Amino acid sequence: MQAFENFNRDELINRKNKLLEEYENYKKQGLKLDMSRGKPCTEQLDLSNGVFNNVQNLFSEDGTDCRNYGLLDGITEAKKLFADLFDVNTDEIIIAGNSSLNLMYDLMAKAFNHGLNGFEKPWSKLEKIKFLCPCPGYDRHFAITQLFGVEMIIVPVNSNGPDIDMIEDLVSQDETIKGMWSIPMYSNPSGITYSDEVVIRLANMKTKASDFRIFWDNAYGLHHLYDTPDQLLNLISECKKAGNPNRTYMFGSTSKVTFPGAGVAFIASSNENINHLKKQISIQTIGYDKINMLLHTRFLKNAETVKQHMKKHAEILRPKFEAVNEILEKRLSGKGIASWNKPNGGYFISLDVLNGCAKRSVSLAKEAGVVLTNAGATFPLGIDPQDSNIRIAPTYPPLSELRTAIDVLSISVELAALELTLA
Amino acid sequence: MQAFENFNRDELINRKNKLLEEYENYKKQGLKLDMSRGKPCTEQLDLSNGVFNNVQNLFSEDGTDCRNYGLLDGITEAKKLFADLFDVNTDEIIIAGNSSLNLMYDLMAKAFNHGLNGFEKPWSKLEKIKFLCPCPGYDRHFAITQLFGVEMIIVPVNSNGPDIDMIEDLVSQDETIKGMWSIPMYSNPSGITYSDEVVIRLANMKTKASDFRIFWDNAYGLHHLYDTPDQLLNLISECKKAGNPNRTYMFGSTSKVTFPGAGVAFIASSNENINHLKKQISIQTIGYDKINMLLHTRFLKNAETVKQHMKKHAEILRPKFEAVNEILEKRLSGKGIASWNKPNGGYFISLDVLNGCAKRSVSLAKEAGVVLTNAGATFPLGIDPQDSNIRIAPTYPPLSELRTAIDVLSISVELAALELTLA
After folding, report:
1. Which of A55, A68, A259 has its CB closest to that of B260?
2. Chain B within 8 Å of A72 (Cβ-Cβ)?
3. Rounded (5°) CA angle B289-B293-B299
4. In chain A, residues 107-126 whose CB comes closer than 8 Å to chain B
5. Do B48 and A39 touch (CB under 8 A)?
6. DSSP assignments along B113-179, one per residue
7. How does pLDDT run across A157-201, given as a tens digit for each residue?
8. Is B36 part of the contact surface with chain A (CB cutoff 8 Å)?
9. DSSP assignment letter at B224
10. pTM of this prediction exceeds 0.95
């Protein structure tokens, strides 16, 4: 659809004036609304206050005193819980710290400094390293690759995952392509889940680099909004079946299950990769916080109770996601100026506006007191080549504030589109 | 003194036979005693169970919800507490995770990958990097430098700190010497504290490398055994005074104040270094566990209450250290075969035996069921050039077991010395 194809110029000018009036009215309200980051709201945090209900003894089931040194890879019951939840074996997982992002950074640092399992050389000894970056994607992933001086190649994200034809083509030819970022389920921000075909082809594809590695950030693997969730194949098993068992590392945490920054994170991979990594980690630390693992495992109990717990999150979040969709629909549909997704889970809605209008839309919203993630943030180096993608993070604000914020954003998007069309 | 200078050969043979009898008696008991690592004992851990007494609300004093994302460098009251305890400003410290060792590894990784504040190039871009390693020292320090392929130069430790003449001489000439390990207070394992002169000369010395950095592991800065503790100058202030403000990073944690591995760690340095580091850390993680910081700060309260808390640790540990000294004294003194220190704090006693006898002593003790830190562990690559240093970690075993273990060790040391002398 063309932008505003059913409107003539006068109608557009009138429309713009009417919108400016609404916009100015919002501006006068002195709004201070923040939708920049994917933070859980207070009501969600309250769901997990029970983490601290069981502190009377701090011994794990096998009698380990979690208050003392020991157990590099985590306590047994925590390994069991997360292995169950993410469909790996307990010897394929390390429970490690509070931040999966930190684990990704750390794995990258090890890949550069020491080399991971199966590397001929640490990446710091090579002239050039490239990573595939499905886009729109997660700004913090791209910030890590940028910090390490990695060249980032944008791969478009389709409704079934990143463009797998393009990926197969690139990795088969270029041995400097050493890795790929991915958020395979309810992706940040596109909300899509990789199809079985995409996962299987990622596991099987021929790569010129023998040390090509997929950083599989399963951040939203448990974060369904509906009773009929998306389904994701387990890349670790698929890599095993394909004879490429060491190709991927999976990451996750309870940051959006219990407490952001005070939860439990994990890394999973083939047993061979994990054993290699454990040797490196044994030089880095004596161990991670076992008390927090213990309290988390006591609270979360098992895969079934975690599922119930996540349903409570969904009950809080569903109305927010649906409100965003409802307002965008009412404000922007049928005008040929915006499209967005209706995800079945995760933390984001990805809004695509007219090319060249994302920055202006975000800036207009900001002037009216609504802070969004910077336009461009969903691309490497913060540069969206088409300046069209905006990430909406609807989880943190209360519903009424969220409705206002999305209304302001919608007005801003339409105003930016009108400015462009009328220019 | 010569070894066994007052004994003739027959007397030594008799002595050996008598000792072998004692040794065999111990062996028959099937002992399983572990003195290999510096772990607090259960009684010490119990001192901190109160950490979890105040979990009813998880908001910090300034109203931050510690259950959510935010505050990269730690909550205000935690920064204040540790800044007070370690005599730095709150803008010179980051409260970060559970493990100071991890912070050291991490700083080294950043020095290699990205470069720290004031670096011309990341160290990974240089042909050769050397570190000064005061010895005997901490095996885990040396394991980090080894992993990064750093050449380690042994510097002997005297009673006032590492040989500062040698250090000044080396760093003034060799620009590949980029750093130095140090445990300046109640050093692991020598128990010595750096004198004011040594600290001041470290701060002021001319270094050929402009990016020479001292890793100042203040692991035992609070861990006094007596009411008249050693005194340590603050290297960060001395570096400031000397016009070398960015020369050092200090590390510490509550691993041996509250819970090993489930405590709170910090890194401190000049404000410029810390700001530079914060930018790098902001790529690595959204933040560290603020709930644990909050609970720790509520429990530890302030510098004065921490001092009282540490006195309770001292009351538990003093009898253990004194028992070790008493038994060594009784068993080994006056024979010219061993010397050891009587530290005023920390976690270790360093025992020097006849050259060539450390491995044999440790191995004899092990055969009799007493596990010590491997001989050689206190030197780079695990190789003690004189094979004479043994690290005693008296904190973990109950007093009665400790007495037995030290008795077995003493017998082993004397037997090894007799084997050598009679050979």
Report:
1. A68
2. no
3. 145
4. 109-110, 112-114, 124
5. no
6. HT--TT-SS-GGGSS--EEEEEES--HHHHHHHHHTT-EEEEEEEETTEE-HHHHHHHHHH-TTEEE
7. 999 999 999 999 999 999 999 999 999 999 999 999 999 999 999
8. no
9. B
10. yes
